Amino acid sequence: MAIRVALLTSLPFLVAAHSNVIVPRPRNAIDALTDPRFGSCSLGHGCAPLNNGQGHCDYGASCGCQCVNGTSPCDIGQTCFWFSQGCSIGCPTCTGVKARDQVDICGLGMKAVVCDPRLRTYNVLAACNSEADLYRHNPWRAPGTAPVFDPCGKAGGGYPDPRGLGPGAADFINTTNAKHGDLGSEVLKPGPSQARWKAGSEVETVWGLRANHGGGFQWRLCPLSANLTEECFQRMPLPFVGRQYLQYPNGTRTLIPSKYAYANGSVAAITADGQMPIGITWATNPLPDGVQKGSVGNFSKDGKWEFEPPCDSVEMDGNTNLCSGERPFAISVVDIVKIPKGTAPGNYVLGWRWDVEETAQVWSTCSDITIV
Questions:
Q1: Collapsing DSSP states into helix, strand and coil, what is residue 233?
Q2: 3 state DSSP class of 361
């Protein structure tokens, strides 16, 4: 089977990684629809209050879930603050703390399986599972094996509430829809279907990063009639077809080289034309972070990034670069996944799980969709 080969220091405590599923709109975005403090995000425009619930978060500041959806509104609410933290690979539970300690939080000793430098997103040439391999305990290094608090995320991720952060820091704001510490599967109620997909068809999803921690991700389904558990979602992962695009603020798209992994950590494909094995359900985050302190590896041509960016990543207003760095929120990523032919018609919840590499954290969202 042909596979076309293409190009191949911890953050400060107050800045956590944040991801936004944009299409299909997730339940986690509910605050954008019901709370006037959360407006539409767009290039150059802030879309949230400060984390004390007052004032306005400036574009590019740490607070708020900044995103861009081409030329369309990005009504994302607080989607980027639903996550689990303190979650090492092979552990039975998350702790809510020690996300940045680079330790095996539960001490059970699971080894990283993502060792190939082409799939790693930090410190890529450090010997796998050596002491120099700083991020070996974090979720992406054994996809799907780190626990989560909830498959639809936990508001605020499990940090103690309040954390005593200043009003400009990144943190969940209590609303009438959810409060800090709530579990998404319990408090985010089913809403109108956000997509109508045909079994056997290829469909688009769109996501973006408010702040970057590398790693990789998976799309999966759970029937709406079932209990929304991690086990339910893991039974129905959606396969990628091998095409991934960058979507720019002006609405144009560029096909980019994309990297896919088997759950056992081996390389499934590195492609830009759909030529890949059938059934691959994990993809690598294509947006590189800046080179971190202590990293060992092949960095970008200009030496700024952990790996080569998929575009000409120019600096932009708002403390961001176009497709790289700590806060690459001025661009979105389009994935093409396939709905298996045998999927029964009905209402489902589409889950997105982002297993990050730089920290012991997992981001999760849930969207209501219909299969016909």
A1: helix
A2: strand
Q: Judging by beta carbons within 10 Å of its beta carbon (0-12, 13-18, 19+), is residue 330 exposed, middle or buried? A: buried
| Phi, psi for 316 (deg, rounded to 5) | -135, 165
For 40-70, the pLDDT digits (tens) are 998 988 899 988 888 999 898 888 999 999 9
Q: How far apart are CA 76 and CA 198, in angstroms?
A: 26
* Residue 116 in tokens: 């190939």
State whether the Cα torsion 49-50-54-58 is positive or negative: negative
Rounded Cα distance, 312 and 331, in Å? 12
Give the pLDDT of residue 279: 86
Nearest to 152 by CA among 367, 353, 349, 365: 365
157: left (phi over 0), alpha (psi -120 to 50) or beta: left
Please name the amino acid found at residue 1. M
pTM to 2 decimal places: 0.93
pLDDT digits (tens, 9 = 90+) for 230-281: 999 999 999 999 899 999 999 999 999 999 998 988 898 888 776 677 889 9
2 burial level (CB within 10 Å; 0-12, 13-18, 19+) = exposed
* Nearest alpha carbon to residue 220 among 127, 142, 305, 335: 335
What residue type is 289 in one-letter code? D
What whole-number distance in Å separates Cα of residue 135 and Cα of residue 18? 18
